[in-house]
Amino acid sequence: QRHVGTRRTDGAAVKRISASTRSRGGKKPALVLKLGGELLEQPEDVASVAKAIAQLSAHASLVVVHGGGREIVSALNTAGIPKQQVDGLRLTDARTLDVVVSVLAGAINTRLVAAVRRAGADPVGLTGADATVATMKRAAPIVSVAGDRVDLGLVGAPVRNGAPRLLTDLLARGYVPIVACIGATRDGQLLNVNADTLASHLAAALQARRLVIAGGTSGVLDEQGQTIERLTTRDAARLVKAGTANKGMVAKLQACRAAVQAGVGDVVIADGRKTRLGTLADSSTRLTGCTQVVR
């Protein structure tokens, strides 16, 4: 049996539950947690997130998807490559992709895996390019909210391919897949993938009970800056069309709509620092300070 944690704070409890989960064949409900890069920059934030992941994995078959955020921007700046985004989606050329892959799949993923192991869970670091975690195609040009036609470059759009066997096998054995938002086409071309888009795709493929999108904002805000506590997919579409949602929120709302329309129970958009992420596996938990998106 693998040793999965040494900290007595949560590790012993998580270890006991993890072992019992493996004996049951991983029948817990599926949950996908997307972490924005802003939650993975400071050691104290990484430790807090890792503790929440260990708590969630004790109650759900958990898949974590993460982005890179400002750490990618910093690496691009160091390399002399300007950041380019449209509606929250990164424009990616070959030089940008090299930096994105090294930061996401290398530094951030490995640090997070190590922190989650210290917190007492049993993580496995992956990207969407591993096995058939997330087969991609080159994303078609988009029409931005401003009405412009934009080619995103080396950016992936998920291909529906059923439940990813590698993830289901790992979940059935009690592991926590931690997936960096890199994908690949069937012929092996690496592609940058928006983390919200990838999390939505995996939540739908796994028929997750819930998708949690955790970042640095307290959900979707109205014109007065107050959190909108509940949205339907139709409400979300109206916010995007009306231009009420800011650029960074457009991709999140589109991912929310796609997930719920594909059968995910609900989506919660939360501030990962202010919300007790470890409690969100329970769909009966009263949600405050975040936005719940439902059908």
Can you give a write-up of this model?
The protein is an alpha/beta fold and 295 residues long. Helices cover 36% and strands 21% of the residues. It has 8 helices and 16 strands. The strands form 5 sheets. It has an 8-stranded mixed sheet, with helices on both faces. Helix 2 (43-57) crosses helix 4, helix 3 (70-78) packs across helix 4 and helix 6 packs parallel to helix 8. The chain is globular and about 45 Å long. The model is unreliable at 1-26 (pLDDT under 50).
Rg, alpha carbons:
18 Å
Report the total helices.
8
In whole angstroms, the N-to-C terminal distance is 42 Å
Give the overall silhouette. Answer: globular
Number of strands: 16
How does the major sheet shape up?
Answer: 8 strands, mixed
The structural class is alpha/beta
What is this structure, in a nutshell?
This protein is α/β, with parallel strands linked by helices and 295 residues long. The protein is built from 8 helices and 16 strands.
Q: Which helices and strands appear, and what pairs or packs with what?
A:
Layout: H1 11-24, E1 30-35, H2 43-57, E2 61-66, H3 70-78, E3 85-86, E4 89-90, H4 94-118, E5 123-127, E6 136-138, E7 142-143, E8 149-150, E9 156-158, H5 165-172, E10 176-180, E11 182-184, E12 190-192, H6 195-205, E13 210-215, E14 230-232, H7 233-242, H8 247-261, E15 266-271, E16 291-294
Keywords:
eight-stranded mixed β-sheet, 295 residues, alpha/beta, 21% strand
